[in-house]
Write a structure and sequence with these properties.
- With 368 residues, this protein is α+β, with helices and mostly antiparallel strands.
- Helix content is 34%, strand content 21%.
- The chain has a six-stranded mixed beta sheet, with helices on both faces.
- Helix 3 packs parallel to helix 4 and helix 8 runs antiparallel to helix 9.
- The longest helix has 22 residues.
- The radius of gyration is 23 Å and the shape is elongated.
- The two termini are 44 Å apart.
- It holds the Pfam family Peptidase_M24.
Length: 368
C-alpha cells in the first residue's frame, strides 16, 4: 500500500507542475488520508520540491481510526502549541525555494489564506480546486474491498435488528442499537448518523430519530452505514410493522422499488450522471410524486459518505468503471409516511457482470 500513496502523490505533483506550481498543500482531512494513508486531527500534507511532509499540530497517536500513515512520509510535529499547520507549511515551502503553492481554497478560511500569504509573501498561492477529489472518484480494488467489507458489516447489523421485537421501541433507541451493532461487527463507527423513521416520519430523507415509538401497521424506514478503515457505505430499507401491508403501502413500495431498480440497471460506464437520475425521477414524477422528490438520486461514496459524482438532474459528466455510488429514491407522503430504498453499488462494465451490488439485504417488502 505505501507505493499506492506515493503514486497518488506523484500524480498530484505532476498535475501541479503542469499548472505552474512546484508545491501543493492538501488540508482537507479526507484528501490528506487519501494521499498519506492516514489523517491525524489537524494534519496537513505538503508536497514540496524537496520531498513530502505531514505537518501535525500534535504527535500522531497511531489510532487505527485515523488510518495508517505511509512510512515514507516525513512527519513534522509543530513545536508551538496552537500553531497553524497550513501557515507552517507555507513557510516551509518558501524556505525550500518554491515560487508557487497550490492550496485547497475550498477548504481554507479567508483568515487562514491571508495568514499564509503574510507568512510566505514570496510564494504565489494558487487554487488546487477539486484536483484530489477528482482523483478519488475512481477507486482501486483495495478501496472497493474496504467498501465491500463495510457493506457486509452494515447488512449484518441490519439483519440482526430485523430479527428482534420492534413494536413499542423508539426510533432513537433503534438507531443507537444499530450503531452499536455496526461496531460489534468490526466497523470503526457509523459512516453517518443513523436514521430510523416510523409511521408519518417514514420515507423522509435525513430524518433524525425521535422518541416516537414503533406501532402496528407503521412503515419503518432505516438508513445506516459502516465506516471501515475510512471507507463508508450506505443502505436504506423500508418495512411494514406487525401486519400485512395495506394496499396503498404495497403500491407505493412497488413504485419506489421499480424506480430504484431502473436506476441501478443504468449504472454502466459511459452513462451520463443525469441520465441515471432521470430514469428513476421520471417514473416517480409520472405517478404524481415529482414535487417532493430529493434534489439528487444518489452520490459517490468512499472516504466521505457524500463524494462526487452527484446523480442529479443538472449533473454533468459520465460514469466510469470502478466508481461506487448510492441509488436512493424515496417518496414521503406528509402525515402518512413513505418509502426509501437505498443501495451502494460499484459501476462495472457489462462484460464484468454489470453494476456490483454491495448492500444485499433483501428489498422485499417484509412485514416484521
Amino acid at each position: 500500500m505505501p507505493d499506492v500513496f506515493a503514486d497518488r502523490r506523484g500524480r498530484l505533483r505532476d498535475r501541479c507542475a503542469a499548472a505552474g506550481s512546484a508545491a501543493a498543500l492538501v488540508s482537507r482531512p479526507a484528501n490528506v488520508r487519501y494521499l498519506a494513508g492516514g489523517a491525524p486531527p489537524g494534519a496537513v500534507l505538503l508536497l514540496g520540491t524537496d520531498g513530502d511532509a505531514l505537518l501535525c499540530p500534535g504527535t500522531p497517536t497511531g489510532d487505527p481510526v485515523e488510518g495508517r500513515l505511509d512510512e515514507a512520509l516525513r512527519v513534522t510535529v509543530l513545536p508551538a502549541a496552537g500553531a497553524d499547520p497550513v501557515v507552517a507549511a507555507a513557510a516551509l515551502a518558501q524556505s525550500s525555494g518554491a515560487e508557487g503553492l497550490a492550496v485547497e481554497e475550498h477548504h481554507l478560511s479567508v483568515a487562514r489564506h491571508r495568514a499564509m500569504s503574510a507568512e510566505a509573501p514570496r510564494v504565489r498561492l494558487t487554487d488546487l480546486a477539486g484536483a484530489v477529489e477528482q482523483e478519488r472518484i475512481v477507486k482501486d480494488e483495495d478501496e472497493i474491498t474496504c467498501l465491500r467489507i463495510a457493506a457486509e458489516i452494515t447488512d449484518q447489523a441490519l439483519g440482526e435488528l430485523l430479527e428482534s421485537i420492534l413494536v413499542g421501541r423508539t426510533e432513537r433507541h433503534l438507531a443507537l442499537e444499530l450503531e452499536r451493532r455496526l461496531v460489534d461487527h468490526g466497523a470503526d463507527g457509523p459512516a453517518f448518523a443513523t436514521s430510523v423513521a416510523t409511521g408519518p416520519h417514514a420515507g423522509r430523507r435525513g430524518h433524525r430519530p425521535s422518541d416516537r415509538r414503533v406501532e402496528e401497521g407503521d412503515f419503518l424506514s432505516v438508513c445506516l452505514g459502516a465506516d471501515y478503515r475510512g471507507y463508508r457505505c450506505e443502505i436504506g430499507r423500508t418495512f411494514v410493522i406487525g401486519t400485512s401491508p395495506a394496499d396503498w403501502q404495497i403500491e407505493l413500495y412497488d413504485l419506489v422499488f421499480a424506480a430504484q431498480r431502473a436506476a441501478r440497471e443504468a449504472l454502466l460506464p459511459g452513462t451520463e450522471y443525469r441520465e441515471v437520475d432521470r430514469v428513476a425521477r421520471q417514473m416517480l414524477d409520472s405517478a404524481g410524486y415529482g414535487e417532493g422528490l430529493a434534489p439528487l438520486l444518489g452520490h459517490g461514496v468512499g472516504l466521505e459518505i457524500q463524494e462526487d459524482p452527484q446523480l442529479a438532474p443538472d449533473a454533468m459528466g459520465k460514469l466510469d468503471a470502478c466508481v461506487p455510488v448510492t441509488v436512493e429514491p424515496g417518496v414521503h407522503l406528509p402525515g402518512r409516511g413513505g418509502v426509501r430504498i437505498d443501495d451502494t453499488l460499484v459501476v462495472r462494465h457489462e462484460a464484468d457482470g454489470g453494476p456490483e451490488l454491495l448492500t444485499i439485504t433483501t428489498k422485499e417488502l417484509l412485514a416484521l
